[in-house]
Structures are given as C-alpha cells and as structure tokens.
Amino acid sequence: MSQHATAHVSGHYIGGEWIDGHGSVTFESENPATGESLATFRRGTAADVDAALAAAEDAFEEWRSLSYIDRAEYLWDIYHELRDRHAELGEIVSRECGKEISEGKADVTEAWHMVEWAAGNARHPHGDVVPSEVAGKDSYMRRKPRGVVSCITPWNFPVAIPFWHMAIALVEGNTVVWKPAEQTPWCGQIIAEMFEDAGIPDGVFNMVQGYGDAGSALVDDSRVDTVLFTGSAEVGHEIADTVGGEPGKLAACEMGGKNGIIVTEDADLDIAVHSAVMSSFKTTGQRCVSAERLIVHTDVYDEFKARFVEIAEDIAVGDPLEASTFMGPAIEADHVAKIRSHNELAVEEGAEVLVDRFELEAAEIPDGHAEGHWVGPFVYEIEYDGDLRCLNEECFGPHVALLEYDGDVERALEIHNDTPYGLAGAIISEDYRQLNAFRDRADVGLAYANLPCIGAEVQLPFGGVKKSGNGYPSAREAIEAVTERTAWTMNNSTEIEMAQGLSADITTSED
Ligand code: UN1
Predict the structure, then answer these.
(1) Side-chain half-sphere of 295: how many Cα atoms within 13 Å?
(2) Quick one: pLDDT at residue 5?
(3) Alpha-carbon gap, residue 305 to 311, rounded angstroms
(4) Residue 33: closest CA among 474, 336, 270
(5) Ligand 1, residues 254, 258, 283, 462: which to mutate, most atoms within 8 A of Cβ?
(6) Could you tell me which residue ranges the Aldehyde dehydrogenase domain spans (predicted)?
(7) Whole-prediction pTM value?
(8) Residue of 254, 265, 332, 404 with catalytic role
(9) Please, what are the domains in the chain?
(10) Is the C-alpha dihedral spanning 284, 254, 192, 456 positive or negative?
C-alpha cells in the first residue's frame, strides 16, 4: 500500500483473499497530529466476521497438523520483514497513532521481539514429563491448540500488541481472526500484507477491519474458542462477562490501570523525577501502564514537586515525526474531550492545579498541525481520599496527581493499592527493605524498582490484577489462553496398576 492511499479503499483479508466484504460503509485512518486522512478502509460487518470465522475454522485441521517448527517458519519471514522495514513502519506507526518517532520504532521492535520469542519457542519444550507413582507408567503434560482465536487489539501499540496475540496463537496451532483498532487500520493492512507475503496457508490468518460491532460479532460467535483482547476496561469486562457464560470458551482480557509510583524518603530524586516523567508523559499518557498517581513522602515532597513541575511545564509537545518531540498528540477528538473531563473532575474534587497545559499555546503547535488533537500535561496535587473519583478512574492521558504521604512504606502501599485497578507500579527508594515490601505487597502484575512503570519486555508475562485483567496475562503467557493442557499417561506394562493404592482387581460373584 502506498503512503497516500486515499483514492483506494482497502478491504479485509479473509481465506487468503482481499475482499470488499458485505458492507458499503467506509472509514478513514486519520493522522492525529494533522487531522489529514491517511487512507480509506471498508468497515467490516457481522457477515464479514462470519466469513472470516468460517475460513479460520476450515483451515484449522490442516494447520494444527503441521509441526510447531513448520508453523513458526511463516513467522520468521515476518520477523525479517519487520526488521528490514523498521524505519518505514516506525514512521507509519507515528503517523497513524501520533506516538513520537522513537516510540513508533520501538513499537515495531517490540513486535519483532514477540515474533522472535514465539517462533523461537517452537523449538522449546511445550510440556513436562511428570513422575508417576507406578513405575510402569509415563505421565506427561502436553499442550494442544484450542482452535479459532479472535484477536481484538488497541491503537496505542498498533504493531506490537497484534503480535503479542497472533504470533503465539499461530505457532501454537490455532487459526486467527483479527480486528485491528478502528483508529489504526493502516497498520492492520500492512500486517495482513506481511502474512500474505509470508505465504501463510489460506484461512489460517484473517483480518476484518472495523469497529465495535465487528468486535462483538467476533466475541459472540460460537465457533470462537478463545478471545484475546487488549484495550479498555469497559469493553474488556463486557467481553469477559459474555464469554464467561459460554462453556468451553475463554477470554483473556488485558485492560488499563490507575498506576502509581511511590517515592519514599530514601529515594534518589534524580531517578524519581526521571521515572515519573517517563511514566506519566511518554506516549502522551496513553499506555495502559502509564502512571496517573505519584505518591511522595513528605520529607522529599517539596523538592520532588518543584522538579517534576518544572519539567512538566516545559516538556516538548509537538510533531511526532521530529526526534526532539517528547509527547505527540492524543489519538482523536473524542479522547481530547475525555481528557478534559478528567481534568475538570479533579478540579471539582478539590485539586490544586500545578500545571495546566491542556490548551497549548498557539506557538507550541507545530506549523501545519492546527487540526491535530493537541493536549499538554495536567499536574495537580490533592489530599489523598480513597473515595475521590479522580484517584480511581483511568484518564489515559497526561493527567497526573501528586499525593503526599507521611509514615512508613506500608502507608504508601495502602494508598497505592487503593484503586480498583492493578496493572503496573513502581517504587523509588535506596532502601532494599522498602523495595521488597513493594515487590511483595503492591497489587500489580508489573512491579518496578527505581525505574519507570512502562517499558515491559516481551519475555515477561504482561498482565494485571483486579480490574486490570481477568487472569490470563498477555505477551509470553498468552500461551496459556490459546492452548489446552492434556495430562497424558501411558502404561508400559501389560498389567494394569493404579495409583493411590486403588485396587485394579476385578472381582465377580464367583470370587
Ligand atoms: C500498553 O501500555 O498499552 O510495558 C502496552 C510497556 C509496553 C507495552 C504497553 N511494552 O510499556
């Protein structure tokens, strides 16, 4: 696809073919930094999802009968293409979702890391040899694919997260129907082209472009064995509820957070300020692991506040394609409105506003970018109260609260854990006891010490607790959600001998 494909309308990839599908509605991919249209796509319908699921179901038996290593070969082709096209694809990510260019490129890097992990894992053991009580028995834990996997992915990691889902699902022997986020269909189109270039057998990988209605069709259909979802808590909980009622079907939902960083009285403040700025403002606060709460000990509060505020006042918001930019725009106009309402809510609840760059000065907006969805940092301090909505509801923007605490690390942890979410968090301290207290007691799936709470690597399980996840981590651990385990026991003897001392004698009335 060319870099300006507005004249052309791109369709869906189903059963090894590019098709227009059943619907007549199209939608645009928009550059959030300029408002310009990048390309036009067909909006998928329930009938298109139906066709894709039929193709995926048809392709399953043949695909599962290949070896892991043969299946992984297709992914290695994609791995090389991702690497070869790094700069080009990084720029496309930045243009389509507004992340600054180093983040656009890191998204592509994270994608090939995941492909490398999943395809490399094809040569690693996939189960365990388990001892038996009975010498003549061999027991094994084996894995087999679940079948058809639906993947629904977000716009903020438009290349990496699709591969968190699909690389593992495919290597494990499942077939896939994927719906990319409606904000980033261009990245979706390119990834589908890569699968086509790799020559993946027809129907093994399918992509339907579209909105939530296509996503619902992908969740509801009885041919789907696993739904992999990464996105908002609102949608994720709906999916988990729907799927929970269907026996045999499984949903792995990774959602957001109201992530916090604790800065104790023993913190190195250079590390604290650096980590907080990265966690709150990188990706314009639009990571599910971004920090919206900074919980700072009273002994270091004033100094931390002064240093953090000074940077927030000045942080470079601008054209995502410029290397000097730290924060690009928000993804879309509706999201800007949502960020505004979170900022207003904090004020209504008594926030003392320290930095308000929500409306950027005209001079801060780069030339030719007036139609972009610009927002800057919003920093406030507020007295901690567990009932405040602003401390419980995720904004998904550059919106961050400073909370002063007094007392020991247990007090900081109490505040830290007092949200419905539990995805990521960090502690900044030079005292190893405080670090270990956080490691053991923070209600999060991703915990960091003396680091930002963003930037997890793919070889770690990625997932949260409480409202942030439903118990099936993504990335490396998606393997659990796309396979069934079989406990396989084989007898090498001609006698039947049972475990637990259970008698294997058959007695009859004659005995
Ligand atoms: C997300 O925040 O939506 O840990 C995903 C990170 C990235 C993935 C983030 N590897 O920051």
Answers:
(1) 27
(2) 45
(3) 10
(4) 336
(5) 462
(6) 18-485
(7) 0.96
(8) 254
(9) 16-255+469-488 (3.40.605.10), 259-449 (3.40.309.10)
(10) positive
